[in-house]
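Handout, section 4.2: multi-component inputs.
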Amino acid sequence: MYKLKKTSHKIRLFLETIFYLAPIVTALFWIFFNTLSKAGMVQMPVPLHLIHLTAFTTLLAFGISLLPLGVAMFALHQLITVFKNYEKGQIFCLENAKCYRKLGFSFFAWVISGLITQPLLSLALTLANPPGEHLRMITLSFNGGDFATLLVGGIVIIISWVMMEGHKLAEEQAHTV
Amino acid sequence: MPIIINLDVMLAKRKMRSNRLAQLIGITEQNLSILKNGRAKAVRLSTLEAICKHLNCQPGDILEFQEE
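Output:
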């Protein structure tokens, strides 16, 4: 149990760091978008040469990217809660089972947020195109990676059912004299 | 719950305290309290055996069935 508690503590700290860094990194990404795109470090649903970012469209793109960011932060929060409970030695508690279920649904939400964000982002990024280049594009894609994400989400939900059964067994064990 | 635990009655009859019994049968006071307060979902036969041995009684003196 000591090994589990110690490892859970390290993982929780790591997850909390990502949790707090995620919005900051997202903001910095949009602030330095032009620099990053010139360095070839950016992949967008729209070809980079068609993107003309203004302050407004940058803010709009950042606002749109808050949707998948919110989903990711929600999922991270569930994991942080789980590992916090593991640190206390609470493995099969009801809270953990509920967190796993929410985590599973987060995977579904991630795919849905991608389907919403992609067209909105492609529209926002080409919104400020100068006259003569009013190429307002909307892109939408669903690929194998999204399917895999849905599959993983389903598996995590099934794992939450197992954890729920584990909780019932642990409860019974705790009340067995 | 239909099964009533009459441990308090037996402890009083034998003039023994809960913590002493818990010590003798090798369980924590907390676990014995779970049993006394009717919150136990199961009792091991080994625990029942130890209780009967140290309180010098029969299982029927500790456990009683009452229709709900």
